[in-house]
Known about the structure:
By secondary structure, this protein is an alpha+beta fold. The protein has two domains: 5-48; 56-147, Lipocalin (Beta Barrel). 27% of the residues lie in helices and 33% in strands. It has helices at 20-46, 57-70, and strands spanning 10-12, 15-17, 74-79, 82-88, 94-95, 104-109, 112-116, 121-126, 132-136, 142-147. The strands form two sheets. Strands 5-4-3-10-9-8-7-6 form an eight-stranded antiparallel β-sheet. The protein has a two-stranded antiparallel ribbon with strand order 1-2. The chain is elongated, with a radius of gyration of 30 Å. The model is unreliable at 3-7 (pLDDT under 50).
Amino acid sequence: MAKPAIHRVLVIKGKLKQPVFFNLCSRAKNTMKMLIVLILLFIPSLGFSDPLARFMPETVAGSVALKNKLVGTTWVYKWRGREYLFSFAADGSVSKLKSWSMVNWVVTAPNEVVLEGVSDRMVLLFNDQATGFTSIDWDGQKTSGGIVFE
Length: 150
């Protein structure tokens, strides 16, 4: 009488070989281990879907403070030897400079504002006092600007 299939062990050339059933189980275990590792690596990145979860509270507070300093202020933008006036509006738009009428602004860090045009972005890096900035213009040239005290 033959033993049940689970208990069969094959001996090939003096080596003990497990039945296919056990090999499938170990493959499934390895697959599950890899799946668990991938899930554990992916889960922390889910926190980045919430913008506020990406930053420490100090960074968020600094960004809010910069936004509050900028709203309603007028700035001079120096580009190719000329000066242009613009303002940061409370609704996130840029005013006073007609060529930037479709541009919105967003504070992304305690010293950084991104100007978002229709098809491009420009980053303004502010000094610690938020009285001046430097940038690379839409066309790749270095630019700068400063607050206008009215």
